[in-house]
Amino acid sequence: MDVLTWLIDSTGVDAHWSGYTGEAAVSSEAQVASSAVIEPGVEIGEGSVICAGAVIKRGSRIGRNTIIRENVVIGSDGVTVYRAADGRLLKFPHVGGVSVGDNTEIGANAVIAGGILAATFIGNDVVIGNLCNVGHGAVVEEGVWMSVGSLLGGHTTVHAGATIAMGVSVRDNLVIGAEASLGMGSVVVKNVEPNHSMFGNPAKRMVGLKTGPKR
């Protein structure tokens, strides 16, 4: 952590997503509200819409035809504080950035934390509801549907087509299988197999439970 901090401060190293350049640009065909904050080094693809009050931080990439709703924050640091052997409290620098795919929608007041060393990844055709939080280094694959007020811990992977209902909390470092369903208000503390349905606190398998819209 000390070495990485020194590299950032002394040499200006950037280790964001593959192909990152500090000269990343906003497409002339994107719509960006005048009150949105777009830091240098942000890429926004054609046809995307960035609504009022959104904050897109350096090292973030937004694909094409994606909607970022009001007051969304993309690329903020997560909580990564460690105590060194000498007693100092050290914060792990976040240099991974965020990569958001095409045809995706992120709801109002959601937060997508930046990755530490690798990008936080949101795939194509994803829907993330209002007031959701996606932790640093998480991977959300294509077609995932994540409803209002759900929380996804850092470094968790949600595979394609999974559905996360309202108010679900998923612990960090888990794997949610493809086409899995997590029922409303569930607290998920272990990996979920593909096509399994989980419900409760702690979440347990519920055969036949389906959540979210029909695909």
TrEMBL record:
Gene3D superfamilies: Hexapeptide repeat proteins (2.160.10.10)
Protein name: Transferase
Keyword Chaperone: no
InterPro entries, sorted: Hexapep, Hexapep_transf_CS, Trans_hexapeptide_repeat, Trimer_LpxA-like_sf
Entry-linked Pfam families: Hexapep_2
MF (Gene Ontology): acyltransferase activity
Family from the record: Belongs to the transferase hexapeptide repeat family.
Keyword annotations from UniProtKB, A to Z: Acyltransferase, Repeat, Transferase
Keyword Cell inner membrane part of the UniProt annotation: no
